[in-house]
Write a structure and sequence with these properties.
Number of domains: 1
CATH topology: OB fold (Dihydrolipoamide Acetyltransferase, E2P)
Number of strands: 9
Strand content: 25-35%
CATH architecture: Beta Barrel
CATH superfamily: RNA polymerase II/Efflux pump adaptor protein, barrel-sandwich hybrid domain
Strand order of the largest sheet: 1-2-3-9-8-5
Largest sheet: 6 strands, antiparallel
Number of helices: 4
Order of helices and strands: EEEHEEEEEHHEH
CATH class: Mainly Beta
Length: about 130
């Protein structure tokens, strides 16, 4: 299982891509979707929702469980992946691409330093 090196990771199995313009894209890792199994529903907070690091920003429902999604950094939702409403399986099929979940405006960029590198995350999941 490969974890893209251009992303940052959390111990709760979310990934974050710094878009370089004060925003970030967030989703769950390949490891997380594999542990959850077939994802049947994704519920996300709407645009404008503000949260702090480690707050819940949504849930993922799989055939066998429901899992909360935790914010990697402080931010405000600026976009949600509306394709997941009709096609939640995108998270299983392409967790680092078409299966992204939210885009946020980062409100505390210093928190990016507390996230895991791809190598550190690989150590955590091996």
């Amino acid at each position: 299982m490969s974890n893209p090196s251009n992303l940052k990771y959390t111990k709760e199995h979310e990934w974050l891509k710094d878009n370089g313009d004060g925003t970030a894209t967030i989703g769950i890792t390949e490891f997380a979707q594999g542990e959850l199994g077939d994802i049947v529903f994704v519920e996300l907070e709407e645009s404008g929702f503000e949260f702090s690091q480690d707050d819940v920003f949504g849930t993922v429902e799989a055939v066998k469980t429901v899992s909360e999604l935790f914010a990697p950094v402080d931010g405000e939702v600026v976009e949600i992946n509306e394709a997941l409403e009709d096609n939640p399986e995108l998270v299983n099929d392409d967790p680092f691409g078409e299966g992204w979940m939210i885009k946020i405006k980062i409100t505390d960029a210093s928190q990016l330093e507390s996230l895991l590198s791809s190598d550190d995350y690989a150590d955590l999941t091996s």
